[in-house]
Specification:
The structure is a single chain. The protein is of the alpha/beta class. The protein has eight helices and seven strands; from the N terminus they run H-E-H-E-H-E-H-E-H-H-H-E-H-E-E. The protein is globular and about 40 Å long. The two termini are 31 Å apart. The relative contact order is 0.17. One of its GO terms (biological process) is cognition. It holds the Pfam family Methyltransf_16. It comes from Bos mutus grunniens (Wild yak). Belongs to the methyltransferase superfamily. METTL23 family. This is Methyltransferase 23, arginine.
Length: 221
Amino acid sequence: MYVWPCAVVLAQYLWFHRGSLPGKAVLEIGAGVSLPGIVAAKCGAEVTLSDSSELPHCLAICRESCQMNNLPQVHVVGLTWGHVSRDLLALPPQDIILASDVFFEPEGKPFFLLGSQFNHRYNGIKSVLRSLFFPDFEDILTTVYFLMQKNPKVKLWSTYQVRSADWSLEALLYKWDMKCVHIPLESFGADKEDIAESALPGRHTVEMLVISFAKDNLNYT
């Protein structure tokens, strides 16, 4: 229930590309207070906000954000990553998926480490942590992959806060036939500590990624 530094950076990316947003179908996953999704809706996109169907208070926050910003047309649905639900099946094809700091472990340690360090730290308790806190990294990509089947040209616009250099998306992206393009923050005016007169992202290191099917050869700027 907090505006994370990553949300402000993603919102800035949306604002930078606001001219391309009117009429686009945009889904924000793990939306929470929904700053990126709200900005997209204000820029004319047809937005759906989503958060875990198992966390009704998060969905209530999404709806409250819509009410506060006079956006009654924005839909709010419960989507649990890695689960095929009626709401997921009912979603129309999307053009853009927004994900702000969804690759996150609540204790500040990399939940999705690869290799021996992962096995040493988390083997045996991974399933417990997953059930108590956040879905597995692959659960997120599974849901994204399902949405890509509806529209192979859909793009995942994602920001994440660098908390450790020990984890990587590379293996899972390869497994799910996806590619990742890094977007320099300076290319859209996000390489500063105070975006849009806010105090965020502060001194946090935030990265911007665009993820798509590997067979898509479109360029990004």
